[in-house]
Amino acid sequence: MDLDVMHEPTSHRVTTAPETLDLSREGAAVWASGLTRSFVSGRGRSAKTVHALSGVDLGIGRGELFGVLGPNGAGKTTTMKILTTLLFPTTGEVRVAGFDAIAKPRDVRRRISLVSGGDNAGYGILTVRESLWMFSQFYGVPSKLARERGEELLDRLGLREKADERVNRLSTGFKQRLNFARGFVSDPEIVFLDEPTLGLDVESARNIRGFLREWMAAERTRTVVLTTHYMAEADELCDRIAIIDRGRILATDTPQGLRARVSADRRVVIELETGTPVDALARVPGVRLLRTTPPGERGTFGVHLAVTDGRALRGALDVLGVEGRTIHNLSTHDPSLEDVFVAIVGRGLEEIEADEAKRRAEGA
Amino acid sequence: MNRDRYADDRLEPLRTNLRAAWARAYVRIFAASREPSWILFETIMPVLGMFAYVYVYRALGAPREFETFVVMGGVMMAYWLAVLWSMGTQWFFEKQEGNLEYYLVAPCSRMAILAGMALGGVVMTSMRAGLSLVAGVLLFRTNLMPGEPWLALGVFLLTLGSLYALGMCLASLFLMYGREVWHVSNALAEPMYLVNGLYFPLKALGPWGFAAISTLPLAIGLDAMRQLVLGPVLARGLLPVGTEVALLAASLPVNLGLAVWLLARSERIGKRTGALILRHQ
Amino acid sequence: MALRLEERLRPVRAAAHLGFQIETNWSDPLVFLVYALARPLATSLILLVMFKVVIGGATTDPRFVALYVGNALYTYVLLLLVGLSWAIFEDREQYRMLKYVAVAPMGLVSYLLGRSWAKFVLATVSASVVLGFGVGALGMRFPFTLPSVALGLGVTLVGAAGVAAVGLVLAGCALVFARQSMTMNEATASVLYLLCGVVFPPDLMPRLLHPVALALPMTWWLEASRRILGVRGFSTLLAQPGDAALGAVLLAVTAAWVVGGFVVFALLERRARSNGLLDITTAW
């Protein structure tokens, strides 16, 4: 098996090169083809059909840490529910750990575990230690082995001091750590993590990411499928990322590959006073106007540009200078995953979620 | 590489299910002791409620055997309520609290989880049932000594088995429902006391009594046990005890089979409609 | 001042609306009606069978009418009192909204009372149907004159206030005994069924329990309701005060419970806050 070391300063994990992954129907850790899923909400005449997935194809190799990145409502959780045998797709085929997830759910379940984000950590009356033991029993892990694994997880996830505390007396952060630990106590082949760091404090999130890297490094065939809408998390952790929006997977590649797809342009963010016209910037040779961000509290807004070189940037600044505009801030950077996302989806995650929140508020 | 720990282990499903059942029972049996206030609210207070019906008979000047009807009905009522609330509605509460999906993605059988709930539930509920018996004997001087204790114990265990299997059917039915589960369970308490003859001899229901005894394990078991304690005449038994034992024995596998079928069917429907993963309906 | 009252009432109205939605929108109206009536009608029928199997007489027998009326009105305890405490459990553990209500300016008491309004309406419908069943199917006769109906409505409101006051104490307990909040409702309802002279005269209970029965507003409310419906002599213990004195006792005991209910709830709520129990989940 060919190996290479990913150039990720925060990750020292040895991973399989994408081109050598077995992504075939039989060999992949997760393989899905043409997945669609519709939900009917309401009854009678007010019934509405919502299309959560509109033809998802996935191939995730053994040993990969695979991220599914998308805004709320993009179809991430629905995909996870289908992959973990909790939901049938409306159409399509799905295989997990080499088994048909629709026809052979038990064979799949023996080899996987699921952690949904949030602080739900089982029964409040149990202690942390008992809770880990109890969940291990649902997977048939012998008690002695379960206790050993439990103790190891307590140490590695910083839960040792809380081991004998009742779950309903834990703080949210510790409950989330326990919820996370629960997913590993059965030593699964494939772990599905649905927004595992959602709402977590920085320390706990770092703790969890560190653990995940160690866990993957310990055995090459261990696979993790992670949904998130945190760009940095996906960028830092994942070997490959699928970008999903409105029930479709729009791109799948390594973080580096995704960046390369966008172009080698430099990214420039210019902060201007709210209301400043920016259309003229798009006409400067070598400059593409990518998007603007909504006005902030300081009475300014951000203009995101892609520039081919320093001359193009100079041109853009000249346009603003001629028009007498005040530049409050200016920064440049390489294309980030956020830029990739915008280029592929057409909008930024924050914008999509702000629009979604606005639509919900109007609906209410 | 595809490591497979399970390929040749035929006993693995059995071991997993036994472990799962024990783990689920553990929560109820041992963890319960950490908050002993349940003894007051789930044992002592409901037993006091049962006394009201003893006093109704006293107010009406009824013969003493009617108090035995009430006490024995109160004992069995404890099990019915446990079946209804701690089994029937349990999936619903698990779903609301977000635990259900963790059961559903685990490889153990859902029947194993339900069996664990039943085992834990029986242990806890027996405390309440035992207290009802003790209170009946000590406070109301009720005669509760069966003529054939082993037969009575056998009928009791058969009734419990069939009753908890019925609870598994309810749990399976309720798996994909939302808030209506709570309401339906609520509405199933008193009407079930009525049709099972918890406070009076089933014979008083006339033809309805026969309808109940042909379908409800609680009605059959209670009628049989009352006959074993009071004798067929005072107990106003509906059918001979032997017939009732045969009915109970037949109802156990029927209810269990029905539960397995319903569970599989509910899960399929739930996965098709998405009802398994929807919370706060 | 009027505006402030309006401001105070708005969230209570919203809570009442929420209560109606939660109570009724889970099913179509027919199923809902069956549900709402199944429980009280079933208990009435249980009592009917018990009466028939022992006495075998007419259902117009005053002994039966007395326990039938008590049982019909007990619906207020089952729905209103239990509902107050259940709302705590439901909002804390199922909907996980209790903490948000607790930090809102309206306060938990206003919210709970607003949310329970639906239960009061449901209990009134249910009790009316059961009493109507007694008249229509069991041949009972109640003196429905204008003064008796007016008095009956007034006593029902006082009775409901007493039930709600006891319910507030129970709701406070549900905040503190978090784990038992689901089971304590039904358990308390069972004990009150015994203590309040619902289906048998409290005289029959051991003397030790008589003061407890007399200290509960429901005991006096049920006796007053029976008298208004023409049923007298149900209990020697409760027969002593004349009608006016009975009214005064009912008002006094209810008022004491209303004040006590608010105070006890406030104390228990403070305890729950200090122990961090407002957003606890306890299931096992």
Mean pLDDT of chain B: 85
Instruction: Provide the succession of SSEs of chain A.
Output: EEEEEHEEHEHHHEHEHEEHEEEHEHH
Strand content of chain A: 25-35%
Instruction: Figure out the total of helices of chain B.
Output: 12
The helical percent of chain B reads over 70%
- Outline the low-pLDDT stretches of chain B: none
Distance between the termini of chain A: 55 Å
Termini Cα gap of chain B: 43 Å
Main sheet summary of chain B:
none
C-alpha-based Rg of chain A, rounded:
23 Å
Shape, per Cα inertia axes of chain B: globular
The largest chain-to-chain contact, stated as pair and per-chain residue counts, equals:
B-C, 53 and 48 residues
Residue-averaged pLDDT of chain A, rounded?
A: 85
> What structural class should be given to the helix and strand makeup of chain A?
alpha/beta
Figure out the total of helices of chain A: 11
Q: Mind explaining what this structure looks like?
A:
The complex is a heterotrimer of chains A (364), B (281) and C (284). Chain A is built from eleven helices and 16 strands. In chain A, helix 3 packs across helix 4 and helix 8 (255-262) crosses helix 10. Chain A is α/β, with parallel strands linked by helices. Chain B is mainly α and 281 residues long. Chain B starts with 11 loop residues before the first helix and ends in an 8-residue tail after the last helix. Helices cover 75% and strands 0% of the residues of chain C. The model of chain C has no long low-confidence stretch (mean pLDDT 87). The interface between B and C is large, with 53 and 48 residues.
